[in-house]
Amino acid sequence: MSDLKITEKPLPFVRLAALTETVGSQPEVSAVVGPLFDRVADAIVASGGEPGLPIAVYDMNKHGVRVRVGFTYDGPAIDGVDILELPAVESAVTGTHLGAMATIDDSWHAIHQAIEERGVRAQGACREVYLESGSDDQSTWVTELQQPIATE
What we know:
- With 152 residues, the protein is α+β, with helices and mostly antiparallel strands.
- The protein has helices spanning 29-46, 104-118; strands at residues 6-11, 14-23, 54-61, 64-72, 82-86, 89-98, 121-122, 126-132, 142-150.
- Strands 1, 2, 3, 4, 5, 6, 7, 8 and 9 form a nine-stranded antiparallel beta sheet that branches.
């Protein structure tokens, strides 16, 4: 993992064409993310659209991890795909993970450590925005990690 520059910033409203699946635990997440992205992309293309920026949203609770993945999308409804609106967020702790998903847990750990050091708390689902991810070679991937926070 390269040095992770951590910042605090607002997040914009985002509209996604997305699919959702819940898994029992964190280790199960990686097996569902790629196939969900593929299904959403196929549905968008089949409807005549073009997938936008890929984004995954993760929400952990007592039932497991709710995984929502999709692409930014401003077109009409698509059969079999949900339209997910992520509200703007006043403040989030963010960092840019460079490289393979195999080491992304280290970057998330650094984000959560920064949240603790700032004396704030995580609030709501976290997001991964895949800024560069089209290559099969994950060493070239660039992923922005975003964790909304409560500052009160």
